[in-house]
């Protein structure tokens, strides 16, 4: 695993406004990296700094060992696809793709061969003499991709390449693009604000917020082990309950004490205890045999709740439950169709739920990383 | 997040690549072009307006000898001499730039035959006096005999001050023009905007027949110089006019003529602007009004007028500006009714009083600048209103109303075609009204003063050169402003410069060119009196509209084309040639036809700048009319009309062909 792109202490300001703040990041050779974050967090700005299109205010960028920090785009080595694709409207598909191949020391026949190869690769060999306006959005996107990789750049930059497409085409192209990237093994950085896109396509994800990197990790790391409430909330859903750390590994919510990953929080700290809805485990009524309360006692973080609302979301039931004994313990839980049927769950019913201690995690009240 | 923060570490300084270097070069060259052809001349003109010349008598002393040539008395300053003699008052001290004051008048018993000798000297190092054509500077004294003493003159001293303006405002004959100009501009604006609004309304909101024809007719006045309607009015209502009776004793020479002519030549401009405003209004609002059972009258006031209000305001300011800065029409038909634009001409050409010409120019600049500033403001608002997606309004047939509209539009068309038709008749009739037989005699321009056919050829040359040079300069300039990424300050400065010509009346520009280019100290002095200065002034005069057309076209192109090209390591000029220019071809053609037509018809800027070798057709119309050769003037005006009509036709055919060829990729 060699580092292909090394970004250090990068800042970017527009006048008074600081758009990127002290960004340091390594991009590994051949990986598919995603910048993910809400609108305006600086993803595009970072991508454009890498491309040299909008040079950073301070900080360095090394690409393949070479310092490219202050080079104009023409002196760097990358291909780029924009959200709009920016296909040249008056040039045919093959002219678009060959735009970067001309005067690059190739003769006509070589250029034609390369264009054919690329059209084959993106699966549009019959479209070569059409104009961009005559193609569908998805086809245009693939042409833009072909044009970007035509010169075999060492780095492929994609700024929301799929967001102009409708949902179905988008899902299809996600798959195609990752396939293509794996095949070419070109180091790729993609900007997106769609978490699903990032989770399904990326080898690693960089979650950004307000011009800083919140977390870098594989999709599963980011999802299962977010370092901050921001990341937790931005990717997937999260129950958040105000709590107080009583001792290491334990918090109190209302008048209930729960086992929890408290990290470095000192006893007495006010925290937010967080848990994903799908981590709430509904328990079989059998667990709670009459007259044997100790069975429950042995299960940690397990108590009774009342089902307030249920909403069918296709593959699961989104359920609001409320712990009537402990004030403020209202949770959203996702129960599988299976579980709902098996346990005959319905609004108004009382059920027993478990909040797995290793899934419940304490975060500081303000957003930002865990202390 | 926006707190002021110090960013640690060294700031990155971007390496300037080849592309950026070339682009900077272009920006600098084109900005220099605008600075030299616009900023410097205007500055020269402004400083001229504040240039004051006065004789400073304290600067010189004279010593006179006795009859034997012995100097017995000491030197006396002219100031003292004058005080002693009570000769010249303060007002006599004011001078024109080329004024001379002879010294003999300070010696009442002077005789050029007397043997008395005179010693003349300056009192300080900067004093200048002339002996004949010989310049003497400083305090050294010069001894001359009385015959030579006649040739000793002092020149006025240049200083800066407001006195030209005080003089202007204390001369009723001059400052009355301000009121006159504002008056005719206001009246013309009200009439034109009203007529144009209903005309545009009929075109966009009714199912009237022959819309295409009316559209074409409404644009015709653009093809002729603004003085042509003046000539037609002379034929209709002048001393021997066929319709003179209709004026009930009023003279056409004066405000009436100017207003009618102004309505004619400003009509297409107002119609275009209002037509655009009406065409973008939202059909959904009308449907809503219908479903609310609002009366037609109410719909009109609550939907139509608010929707078109920016267009109306904008049209009003454009018309006002056109009328107040127009020179040709009031020159032909203004009679004794003085307006600002003609005053400039009279001061400069008639009286050679350049300082006063500059003062009138400054006065004329003010309303024009104001109208321009307000118009820009309004246009910005309208663009904001345009972004909302709206549904195009489809009018429904209504027999009665459509007939009414047809009648109204026919009246307007008769007015426009009538004016042009009268000129055509005037051009063809041998000797109106005595010999009404037809002939082409009036087209024998070589038999009249004014430049003859050579002037017509010059105009064609000017039109083609302006179209070519102007389109290249304007489009390159707009591209650099719109599509380059660095050099931000330079670009915004350039953008400001490019907007300026719109606010500068042609007369003012022309006069400014005299001051700047006719200065022997200017290294560009050699273009004075050539075709080059005519081309340059015309390009600059019509720069803004062309620039805006180019910018609009460029804005519609994807902002990332340049980024893509540089990521593919292709120079920007390859992208420019292969993508930008072909995609913008319709706009480029529009710019060139606009420049051509305007170069053919313009009078105001070039009237100060043409020479005998470079007389122009439009100027010939003016001069022949001035000389009383009205029929040939009308004939030359019609030549301009035919040429422009042909050019437009050619342009339409060419544009259609290009659009057809690019149909495949333009659909979207
Ligand atoms: N040229 C600029 N001048 C001033 N501010 C800018 C400029 N470009 C970006 N910004 C600001 O910097 C911040 C980051 O912008 P950026 O385009 O990188 O966001 P983003 O994460 O890509 O958002 P989106 O998902 O909406 O594309 C935003 O607040 C934006 O307003
Ligand atoms: Mg973005």
Automatic annotation (TrEMBL), chain A:
PANTHER family: PUTRESCINE TRANSPORT ATP-BINDING PROTEIN POTG, SPERMIDINE/PUTRESCINE IMPORT ATP-BINDING PROTEIN POTA. One of its GO terms (molecular function) is ATP binding. This is 2-aminoethylphosphonate ABC transporter ATP-binding protein. Keywords: ATP-binding, Cell inner membrane, Cell membrane, Membrane, Nucleotide-binding, Translocase, Transport. InterPro entries: AAA+_ATPase, ABC_SmlMolc_Importer, ABC_transporter-like_ATP-bd, ABC_transporter-like_CS, AminoethylPonate_ABC_PhnT2, Mo/tungstate-bd_C_term_dom, P-loop_NTPase, Transp-assoc_OB_typ2. Residues 5-235 form the ABC transporter domain.
UniProtKB/TrEMBL annotation, chain B:
InterPro entries: AminoethylPonate_ABC_perm-1, MetI-like, MetI-like_sf. The chain crosses the membrane at residues 21-46, 178-201, 213-236, 256-280, 300-324, 356-374, 405-429, 462-481, 493-516, 528-554, 630-651. It is a multi-pass membrane protein. This is 2-aminoethylphosphonate ABC transporter permease subunit. Keywords: Membrane, Transmembrane, Transmembrane helix, Transport. Its main location: membrane. It holds the Pfam family BPD_transp_1. Belongs to the binding-protein-dependent transport system permease family. PROSITE patterns: ABC_TM1. Residues 178-375, 456-651 form the ABC transmembrane type-1 domain. It is found in: Cell membrane.
């Amino acid at each position: 695993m060699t580092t292909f792109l090394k970004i250090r202490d990068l800042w970017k300001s527009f006048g008074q406004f600081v758009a990127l703040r002290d960004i340091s990041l390594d991009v590994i050779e051949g990986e598919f990296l995603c910048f993910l974050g809400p609108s305006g967090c600086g993803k595009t700005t970072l991508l454009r700094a890498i491309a040299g299109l909008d040079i950073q205010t301070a900080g360095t960028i090394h690409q393949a060992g070479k310092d490219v920090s202050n080079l104009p785009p023409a002196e760097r080595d990358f291909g780029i696809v924009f959200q709009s694709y920016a296909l040249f409207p008056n040039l045919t598909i093959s002219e678009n793709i060959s735009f970067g191949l001309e005067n690059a020391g190739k003769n006509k026949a070589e250029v034609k061969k390369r264009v054919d190869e690329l059209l084959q690769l993106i699966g549009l060999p019959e479209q070569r003499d059409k104009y961009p306006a005559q193609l569908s959005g998805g086809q245009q996107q693939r042409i833009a991709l072909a044009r970007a990789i035509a010169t075999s750049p060492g780095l492929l930059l994609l700024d929301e390449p799929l967001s102009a497409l409708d949902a179905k085409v988008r899902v299809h192209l996600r798959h195609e693009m990752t396939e293509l990237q794996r095949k070419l093994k070109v180091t790729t950085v993609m900007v997106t604000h769609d978490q699903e896109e990032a989770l399904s396509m990326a080898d690693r994800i960089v979650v950004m917020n307000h011009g800083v990197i919140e977390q870098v990790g594989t999709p599963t790391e980011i999802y299962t082990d977010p370092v901050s409430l921001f990341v937790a909330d931005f990717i997937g859903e999260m129950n958040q309950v105000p709590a107080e750390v009583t001792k290491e590994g334990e918090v109190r919510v209302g008048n209930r004490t729960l086992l929890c990953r408290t990290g470095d929080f000192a006893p007495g700290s006010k925290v937010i205890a967080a848990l994903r809805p799908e981590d709430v485990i509904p328990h079989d009524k059998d667990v709670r045999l009459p007259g044997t309360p100790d069975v429950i006692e042995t299960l940690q973080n397990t108590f009774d709740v009342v089902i307030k609302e249920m909403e069918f979301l296709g593959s699961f039931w989104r359920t609001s439950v409320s712990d009537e004994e402990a004030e403020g313990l209202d949770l959203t839980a996702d129960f599988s169709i299976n579980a709902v049927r098996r346990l005959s769950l319905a609004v108004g019913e009382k059920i027993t739920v478990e909040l797995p201690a290793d899934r419940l995690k304490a975060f500081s009240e303000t957003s930002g990383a865990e202390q | 997040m926006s707190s002021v923060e110090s960013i640690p570490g060294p700031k990155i300084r971007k390496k300037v690549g080849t592309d950026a270097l070339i682009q900077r070069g272009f920006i600098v060259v084109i900005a220099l072009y605008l600075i030299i052809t616009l900023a410097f001349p205007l500055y020269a003109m402004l400083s001229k307006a504040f240039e004051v010349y006065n004789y400073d008598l304290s600067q010189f002393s004279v010593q006179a000898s006795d009859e034997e040539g012995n100097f017995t008395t000491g030197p006396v300053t002219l100031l003292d001499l004058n005080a002693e003699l009570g000769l010249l008052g303060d007002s006599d001290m004011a001078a024109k730039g080329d004024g001379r004051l002879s010294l003999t008048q300070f010696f009442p018993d002077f005789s050029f035959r007397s043997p008395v000798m005179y010693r003349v000297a300056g009192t300080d190092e900067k004093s200048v006096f002339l002996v004949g054509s010989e310049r003497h500077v400083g305090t050294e004294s010069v001894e001359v005999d009385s015959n030579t003493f006649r040739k000793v003159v002092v020149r006025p001293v240049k200083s800066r001050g407001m006195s030209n303006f005080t003089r202007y405002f204390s001369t009723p004959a001059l400052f009355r023009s301000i009121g006159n100009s504002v008056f005719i501009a206001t009246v013309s604006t009200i009439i034109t905007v009203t007529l144009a609004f209903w005309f545009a309304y009929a075109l966009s909101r009714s199912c009237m027949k022959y819309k295409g024809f009316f559209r074409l007719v409404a644009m015709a006045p653009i093809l002729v110089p603004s003085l042509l309607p003046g000539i037609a009015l002379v034929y209709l209502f002048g001393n021997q006019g066929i319709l003179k009776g209709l004026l009930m004793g009023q003279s056409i020479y004066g405000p009436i003529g100017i207003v009618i002519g102004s309505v004619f030549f400003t009509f297409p401009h107002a119609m275009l602007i209002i037509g655009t405003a009406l065409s973008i209004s939202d059909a959904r609002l009308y449907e809503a009004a219908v479903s609310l059972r609002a009366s037609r009258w109410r719909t009109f006031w609550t939907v139509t007028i608010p929707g078109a209000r920016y267009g109306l305001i904008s049209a009003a300011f454009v018309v006002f500006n056109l009328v107040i800065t127009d020179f040709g029409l009031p020159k032909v038909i203004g009679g004794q009714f003085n307006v600002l634009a003609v005053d400039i001409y009279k001061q400069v050409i008639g009286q050679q009083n350049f300082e006063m010409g500059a003062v009138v120019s400054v006065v004329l600049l003010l309303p024009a600048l104001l109208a321009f500033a307000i118009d820009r403001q309004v246009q910005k608002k309208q663009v904001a209103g345009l972004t909302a997606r709206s549904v195009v309004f489809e009018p429904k047939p209504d027999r009665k109303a459509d007939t009414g509209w047809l009648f109204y539009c026919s009246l307007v068309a008769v007015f426009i075609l009538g004016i042009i038709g009268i000129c055509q008749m005037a051009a063809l009739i041998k000797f109106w009204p005595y010999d009404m037989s037809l002939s082409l005699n009036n087209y024998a321009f070589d038999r009249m003063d004014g430049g003859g056919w050579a002037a017509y050829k010059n105009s064609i040359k000017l039109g083609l050169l302006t179209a070519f040079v102007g389109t290249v300069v304007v489009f390159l300039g707009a591209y650099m402003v719109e599509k380059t990424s660095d050099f931000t300050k330079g670009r915004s400065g350039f953008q400001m410069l490019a907007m300026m010509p719109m606010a500068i009346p042609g007369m003012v520009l022309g006069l400014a060119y005299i001051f700047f280019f006719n200065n022997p100290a200017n290294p560009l002095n050699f273009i004075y009196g050539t075709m080059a200065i005519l081309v340059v002034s015309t390009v600059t005069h019509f720069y803004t509209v062309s620039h805006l057309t180019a910018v609009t076209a460029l804005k519609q192109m994807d902002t990332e084309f340049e980024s893509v090209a540089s990521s593919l390591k292709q120079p920007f000029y390859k992208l420019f040639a292969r993508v930008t220019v072909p995609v913008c071809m319709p706009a480029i053609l529009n710019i060139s036809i606009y420049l051509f037509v305007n170069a053919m018809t313009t009078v105001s800027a070039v009237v100060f700048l043409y020479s005998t070798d470079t007389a122009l057709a439009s100027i010939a119309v003016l001069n022949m009319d001035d000389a009383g050769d009205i029929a040939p003037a009308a004939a030359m005006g019609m030549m301009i009309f035919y040429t422009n009509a042909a050019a437009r036709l050619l342009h339409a055919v060419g544009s259609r062909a290009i659009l057809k060829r690019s149909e495949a990729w333009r659909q979207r």
